[in-house]
Description:
Helix content: 55-70%
Strand content: under 5%
Number of strands: 2
Structural class: mainly alpha
Distance between the termini: 34 Å
Strand order of the largest sheet: 1-2
Shape: elongated
Number of domains: 2
Number of helices: 8
Radius of gyration: 22 Å
Low-confidence stretches: 2-71
Largest sheet: 2 strands, antiparallel
Amino acid sequence: GSSVMAHRRMAGHLGSSFFFTLQDTSPHYSPAPRLLHHLGRPPILPPLALYVLTCGQPALAPFLCVIVPTSRSVTGYLESLHHLRQRLMVDEWEGGGRQRALQRGVAEFEAVCSDKGLPLSWEELSQLYKDPQNLDVIRDPRVRSTARATLHRVLDERHEKVREGATQLAKELADVVTHGPGNLLSGLWGLLPLPGFLKGK
């Protein structure tokens, strides 16, 4: 579906300097062949594509994946991490993060108007919630300026949090790589959002 296509597009941006082999180790559960059918064969995934694909995918929990690093250079892999960070930011921000930040900005603007007694009608506020970027619905110039300042502040704060989150993820994954390929599987396993019974205590 669209989720698989989105992940394939992300994988295409991760470069080709380091790869993983995906193998299904469960004899009783077989969603992996269907997944590999979507990805194409041979079942080789670009760097960290496996991590991206398994995030938020409960259907992958009943079977395990074997990650076998090839002999490509670590330098190329770290370059791929940079691309992953950029893609994470783009997908989070343009994939809904910006719109959520705008809605939050309108909510904060509403609170400001209530606290300061600014002249804002229910109709103006409703129109602003429908389209937070259309500030022309606010008739009072002073109130419009307050709305603009509030929205820009919330957008900047949220964008900074998204950037920090993507940077932190890239650093964590880079640390896993620098400790050697032997720890790569355990490091990625610890970052995946899997149920507790699969991660163990």
